[in-house]
């Protein structure tokens, strides 16, 4: 007897809120400690060379292990992986809040990333299997995308509030009740029939993917502290490319690959992966520079800086739920994605005109930029999250979910490293070539990096227009119902 994958209607929407809470955790923790870093540094003595690892350790562990997490989720069951990921994330967060020295904090942040790498693909897999109907799927993925689009900005706002009124440690403790609450909500997730698997776990493929991603991100981040591309930087970048090439070759022959290459052969799905990676590359640099600019150049408090980004978060919520979520199934995914990328690019271009001293900077630059980038995020995440998992065979959906999340995290990690490097090198060059102040040089660095981010989004729009060709909603619905029910 066939049973709807999501169970009753009330049960499915309960699943959605548990998944949304999990998604909030993994996205929130990419940024919540940003504003808290100065306080943590003052208490633990992190130092300039170590400080960025509080963020990078999480992003690297998360992004590097996502493919393995997707494979493990499929092997042990998505519901079980979801609960394990939540409880493990809670424990790691509590340990990070208790950190007594830099090594303890960075190690616990990396452990958060490990459990996030299991949690994220399990959450997206559960959501995709629970909502096969196109109309319900659109609304569900709209909520999921809203959390993804707003979570990073909410992290900055919440980080400012907790740091100013409590302690930087509460930026980590706050995860515990959220994770436990979502784990309790996991009882609503129906038990799905296990998918038979044969063969050994592809350990080699998992190691190659994690090492390749880590080498590339580390190589980019080292450019900032080395005057140009040093032999070490070049070695890391080339080594990362070689490792990822070896990963692809291994996956072609593996009996149970961590990333079945069939997941990438669908043109629309591959286009969605590229679009979301480039969107996060540009936007995480945007979050970083807005935090710097509003606090350092405009002298905003942490709460004020977070409040500016809250506008971005609220518009992203509208764009993902009330626009993209309602239009999915009626408007081609390509139209939504391209429109979102162009809107976000326009928002970054507005910021390339930032001035060192302007009394009207909020109304003329910041407000339009927050609205445009928020709208862009909402329009892109909803359709790409849905397209990334549509039409995937049941035993590969964990890998597709993991790849979608990996694309986000890899884009975010590279974006922070790359755009920060562009800003620092541009600022240094501007300062040495002209009689400029430190403030003018810093703003020149921000605007140059934001221009690179805007160019990246325009390139992503072109790629998306060519690659993302949506299936007919009726065909997708019929195909997924057969696969889920079988």
UniProtKB/TrEMBL annotation:
Residue spans crossing the bilayer: 12-33, 53-69, 81-100, 106-129, 141-161, 167-189, 201-220, 232-250, 270-290, 302-323, 335-354, 360-381, 410-431, 443-468
Principal subcellular localisation of the protein: membrane
GO cellular component, one term: plasma membrane
Lipid bilayer topology: Multi-pass membrane protein
UniProt subcellular location: Cell membrane
Keywords assigned: Cell membrane, Membrane, Transmembrane, Transmembrane helix, Transport
Classification via Pfam families: MFS_1
GO-annotated molecular function: transmembrane transporter activity
Annotated ranges, domain Major facilitator superfamily (MFS) profile: 15-472
Domain of life: Bacteria
Database matches in PANTHER family: BLR6921 PROTEIN, MAJOR FACILITATOR SUPERFAMILY MULTIDRUG TRANSPORTER MFSC
Name this polypeptide is given: Major facilitator superfamily MFS_1
Organism listed in the record: Beutenbergia cavernae (strain ATCC BAA-8 / DSM 12333 / CCUG 43141 / JCM 11478 / NBRC 16432 / NCIMB 13614 / HKI 0122)
């Amino acid at each position: 007897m066939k049973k709807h994958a999501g169970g009753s209607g009330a049960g499915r929407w309960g699943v959605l809120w548990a998944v949304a809470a999990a998604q909030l955790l993994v996205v929130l923790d990419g940024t919540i400690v940003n504003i808290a870093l100065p306080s943590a540094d003052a208490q633990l003595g992190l130092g300039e060379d170590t400080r960025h690892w509080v963020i990078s350790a999480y992003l690297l562990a998360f992004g590097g292990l996502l493919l393995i997490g997707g494979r493990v989720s499929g092997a042990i069951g998505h519901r079980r992986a979801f609960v394990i990921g939540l409880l493990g994330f809670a424990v790691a967060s509590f340990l990070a809040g208790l950190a007594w020295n830099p090594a303890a904090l960075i190690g616990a942040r990396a452990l958060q990333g490990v459990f996030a790498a299991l949690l994220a693909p399990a959450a997206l897999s559960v959501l995709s299997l629970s909502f096969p109907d196109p109309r319900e799927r659109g609304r569900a993925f709209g909520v999921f995308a809203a959390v993804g689009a707003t979570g990073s900005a909410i992290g900055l706002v919440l980080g400012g509030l907790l740091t100013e009124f409590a302690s930087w440690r509460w930026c980590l403790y706050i995860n515990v009740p959220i994770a436990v609450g979502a784990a309790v909500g996991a009882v609503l997730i129906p038990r799905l029939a296990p998918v038979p698997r044969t063969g050994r776990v592809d350990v080699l493929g998992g190691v190659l993917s994690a090492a390749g991603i880590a080498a590339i991100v580390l190589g980019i981040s080292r450019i900032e502290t080395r005057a140009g591309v040093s032999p070490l930087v070049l070695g890391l970048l080339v080594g990362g490319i070689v490792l990822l090439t070896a990963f692809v070759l291994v996956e072609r022959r593996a009996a149970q690959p961590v990333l079945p290459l069939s997941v990438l052969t669908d043109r629309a799905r591959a286009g969605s992966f590229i679009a979301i990676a480039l969107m996060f590359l540009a936007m995480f640099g945007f979050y970083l520079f807005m935090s710097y600019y509003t606090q350092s150049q405009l002298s905003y408090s942490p709460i004020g800086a977070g409040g500016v980004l809250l506008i971005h978060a609220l518009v992203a919520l509208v764009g993902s739920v009330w626009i993209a979520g309602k239009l999915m199934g009626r408007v081609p995914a390509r139209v939504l994605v391209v429109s979102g990328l162009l809107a976000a690019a326009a928002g970054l271009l507005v910021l390339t005109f930032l001035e060192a001293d302007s009394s009207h900077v909020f109304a003329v630059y910041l407000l339009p930029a927050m609205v445009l980038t928020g709208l862009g995020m909402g329009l892109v995440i909803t359709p790409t999250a849905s397209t990334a998992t549509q039409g995937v065979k049941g035993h590969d959906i964990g890998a597709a979910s993991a790849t979608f999340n990996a694309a986000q995290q890899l884009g975010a990690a590279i974006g922070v490293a790359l755009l920060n490097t562009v800003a620092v090198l541009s600022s240094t060059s501007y300062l040495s070539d002209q009689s400029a102040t430190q403030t003018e040089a810093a703003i020149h660095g921000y605007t140059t990096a934001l221009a690179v981010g805007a160019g990246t989004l325009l390139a992503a729009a072109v790629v998306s227009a060519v690659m993302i060709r949506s299936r007919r909603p009726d065909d997708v619905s019929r195909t997924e119902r057969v696969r889920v029910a079988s």
